[in-house]
Fold:
Amino acid sequence: MGEDTDATPTLNHHGFLPDHNYVTEADIISTVEFNHTGELLATGDKGGRVVIFQREPESKSDPFSQGEYNVYSTFQSHEPEFDYLKSLEIEEKINKIRWLPQQNAAHFLLSTNDKTIKLWKVSERDKRPEGYNLKDEEGRIKDISTVTSLQVPVLKPMDLMVEVSPRRVFANAHTYHINSISVNSDYETYMSADDLRINLWHLDITDRSFNIVDIKPANMEDLTEVITAAEFHPHHCNLFVYSSSKGTLRLCDMREAALCDKHSKLFEEPEDPCARSFFSEIISSVSDVKFSHSGRYLLTRDYLTAKVWDLNMESKPLETYQVHDYLRSKLCSLYENDCIFDKFECAWNGSDSVIMTGAYNNFFRMFDRNTKRDVTLEASRESSKPRAVLKPRRVCAAGGKRRKDDISVDSLDFTKKILHTAWHPNENIIAIAATNNLYIFQDKLNSEMH
Amino acid sequence: MSATTAMEVNIEARRILAVSISKLYASRSQRGGLRLHRSLLLSLVMKSARDIYHSSRESDAPSEAQSPPEEPMDTSSSPELPEPQPEPLSERNSSETAVKESDSEEEDYESDTTEDKENLSPARQSRKRRGKASAAPDFLPNKRARLEPGEERYAAPVASCRVGAGESLTTLSLNQVIPAF
Structure:
């Protein structure tokens, strides 16, 4: 691939004690998302907090400080709740964040946990009125007798303050756990998907939503698949796709019927009967689906592979990329330690020429669709000094020929998993969430997309 | 499958079944409630393991007496069973507002080493409930749930899970493992 990526300083949620391998669970990052311009980057964590980073404008005096991301705002999006009817705790973990396209000075984002979606307004305040008649600088009411003249309050500049306020709360529409939200290209509606149903909302209306997909069988014992991810088409506001635990994708057209249980297209690759094992179903479950920016392709991730599908070809994927095929013989151990249930996300670059996804040992992989070259990189403190160029890593099979710096499959740390990654919409800047740390890498040489 | 013997496959299948059952049991106390997707995947693995276990047992002991195959599950009626079976494994899916979680996996598991009750071919879907509770209507909760002494009471009724490690296998109706919400 030939790109040189260097690291900006790692941004650490507090709670990490470097002497021990102890990480506060609430600090584990659970979602990462750039906004539409790439100026802002939002992360959500298991503790229900959202941290927004803003890219510093490029400075001519110090060319190396261009485009660094610094904390812009932090707020508590969701709190733990208790469902008294079912005696279940509702986790505050942020499952997904999606930005709305910017329409005025303020930024809006949707954040969701298992049950409730919230719309947040993020706005800046850099001026403050001063010179009130009836209250003093601290806000205390003045003694009327001391007021001798009338003054007009004026706006004075102040230190920038970022205010975040909840504008809408979309609740009580999902019986099952929400796994995806997606904003429609009409910028008026969005959808939320749980294990069995997908609902369509209007951004301004919180007390009702339309159910557009329902795959719940009449008898739950007949359940064979669940919805794992869903996304609207980037340009066609009537089209959306959802993936299932069986490894299928369904493209639905909302113009065809009010309830889109019947798909317009079904994307499915026939199973290879030779590869059948106890765990075939688990590893074929699609954990993430993303439309390409062009809207022409779909990117899916299952446990061992990433696949690119052409919307015009339903019978099989266009391209299949092996992310960590060396795990295929270890599925039983990965089942026992629960790693086989990990849900990896995937991402496109801005020009749809490169796809990226995470793996174990804090490795992440990038595949260039044109050159067919791929690279494995590591997101760790040791290998990511600021301005350092990332070194490609290699995993070799146990007992196989080992080069220096190679790592053997048996030495992989399965507790260090990169589930969430994001790619800047226009530039070669990527955000990698490694447990409770966020890494931002930039490609200095090739900053502009080709 | 590779060149492993039927015996090894058998042992592997039993081990996977035991691991799966313990995972299902552990997921009940998970924060945020039972995850439908995970439960479904666990049940699929258990189904594969069970099918492979039984097909490898059949190939090991082809001379065992074959009981008549069971009738398929009829959700509306309560069919009589050809032979006594271990306790049923799940409560039926009652209305959507049902509070109970499925305790299917926690029902008593009994060993069926003495008689090959499970003669279903892997392809046959066994969704049959067995035992006395199948005489009850679908919508009533399973009365088999009970507490063992010393067991913490969860919001949903908890029955005991007496799975001997890898030893006892049941005629699992794995489709019934999916919790009823």
